[in-house]
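Repro case for the chain-ordering regression, as requested:
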Amino acid sequence: MPTLTYSQAINDALAEEMRRDENVILYGQDVAVWGGIFKVTAGLLEKFGPERVFDTPISESVMVGAGVGAASMGLRPVVELQFADFVITAGDEIFFKAGMWRYMHGGAHTIPLVVRAPSGGSGFGPEHSACPEAFIMHAPGLLCAVPSTPADAKGLLKQAIRLDNPVIYFEHKLLYQMRGEVPDGEALTPFGQAVVRREGEAVTIVAWQDMLRRALAAAERLSQEGIEVEIIDPRTLNPFDRATIIESVKKTGACIVVEEAYRTLGVGAEIGALLLEEALPYLDKPFKRLAIPDVPIPTSQHLVDAIVPSVDDIYRAVKELAD
Amino acid sequence: MNQEQLVRIYKNSVLARRFEARIVELAMAGELPPSLHVGAGQEVAQIAAIEALRPADYILYGHRGVAYMIARGVSLADMLADMAGKEGATSRGKGGVMHVVDVQKGILGESGTLGGSFVVSVGVGMALKRKQPDTVVTYFFGDGTANRGPFHEALNWAAVQKLPCVYFCENNGFAISMPTSRSTAVENIADRAAGYNVPGVVVDGSDPVAVYEVMEQAVARARAGHGPTLIEAKVTRLQGHYVADQQEYRTDRNVVAEKDPLPKLQHTLCDRGMLTQAEVDGIQADADRQVEAAVAAMRAAPLLAPEVALQDVYA
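-- result from build under test --
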């Protein structure tokens, strides 16, 4: 199996799907000639030409809204928003047009649209660093992918492009250079199927993307102390694989959600509510969330480190529960 | 434009006028929700513009009235069902009369947020350019929505890409209650075309022949791959923004009926010998028959089942 970076896996997924289906087009700010500010789409203009890979003005509303219109008329657009935060900038087009155009027209339209949204990271400031997937998970009509490995980056993007529904695909900026094995050829990652990244009995941890990486690092340390945690990567937040989390909690009796997003009404709050509704008898310990304490994400690295859950934070949270 | 076309514009305008009047009656009586934004006074321009399109061309429309749908032959009963939440509703109870859709007839739908379809029209244009060459999309919008950001983003990018889009502004002088003079820095919305390097044309919206000719040029330009045109038809909103709007804010409300384009069109047709008074009477009676048949069909249709609310979110 070849080893690729997360970034190259996304590029490969785009190239393969564009080769397979001529209705797939790719556009966004600086994606064509320059290959994107994170260089994820480098070389695709040369492969597929300017009718299928093109740059756009700094106009997030029309970028996403045009994606809805084009998708409704038979294209399969992949739109790159330069930063995931801009799903709010293009809020009408993301939540009302992509999310509701089909519904409010009684199913007359089908919207096979993918919006790629580079999320997370630090040093970019409050409007360029968020992981706003909870906003998307909250909204009807939008599917939501959060790939955490190069293999899933490719498999989820290929699947997203083939789905007939709008998908907001969050690609984490700090994972772009992560390397991992990626199966050759047709390996699609199904939506709505979480994966257990590490098995254990002590505590269930739900985390994705950079928080998953930190959770796995914390798990290594805990393992040396004889504490084995179970780590679940949801892979998609809509559809959301509730069963895998509940099954794990039945075994561990405890659950921590780690998320790189604001604490209040985040994905962790939804998982907490799910456990209250469907798994309360199995919970032996209080449900826990590690998240950003409801402040915007600052720019300076040491301030970011002060608010984003760290490996130490995860380690300590597990220790508190396990003791 | 030939005589047959002008008569068709008149017929459809009469049908739209009478249909909407009946909807208002039913709304006032409590049988339908008062959700229609009556298009009376603007329907002649709307229908004349659509007359310049081919059947394969597409339409995104604004919220004022149902004349667009009538010009394309959408079933009146289905539109009433849209209002009543009954079987036959084109948007299955999800969008009401504001989101009537009939893709086969080229009616793609409407945005709920005002002017929200500017951006959608750009994508439709992008798809037509690649998949249905020789086909155009026209977006009908009100002057008020031209002050929203999507107008700018869409016009600019459609112009850059030379998309087969036509932008048809119906300027009735009011954004709900606010006169255009207080909301808009330019005298004409079409003046903004210069900012996008596209033709901007002002036309008298009460003159269907003039509207048709302007549209014909814009559509030909779009079809030829030269990009969008911004047309502004000066029209008159004969009634309030919504059914129960008393229009206290309006100083011209006692004289506005004099600007009604429909009697003017009728006189033109009769004066030129294109229609006799008996034919005019026949057209009006026929419109009323169609409307009453649609009302009867709507009344006979069952309500949509509650579970329909859960459907159509995902494909």
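Ordering looks correct now. Chain A has a mean pLDDT of 97.
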